[in-house]
Amino acid sequence: MTQQEPLSGQPSAPPSPPPFDPDALALNEAIRRITEQVIPVSDTETVALPDAHGRILASDLLSTLDVPAHDNAAMDGYSFAAAGVSAQGDTVLQVIGSTLAGRAFQGQPGPGQAVRIMTGAVMPLGHDIVVPQEFVTVDNGQVRIPPGQERGQNLRLRGEDLRRGEPALRAGQRLGAAECGLIASLGIAEIRVVRKLRVAILSTGDELCAPGTPLPEGMIYDSNRSTLRGLLNQMGVELLDLGIIQDDPVALERAISLAGKQADAIISSAGVSVGEADHTRSIMQKLGQVDFWKIAMRPGRPLAFGRVGHALYFGLPGNPVAVMITFLFMVRDALTRLSGGQVEATPLLRARTLNPIRKRTGRTEYQRAMLSADTDGTPLITLMANQGSAVLSSMSRADCLVVLEHSSASIPAGGWVNFIPMRLLG
Ligand code: AMP
Ligand code: MG
Question: pTM of this prediction?
Answer without folding.
Answer: 0.90
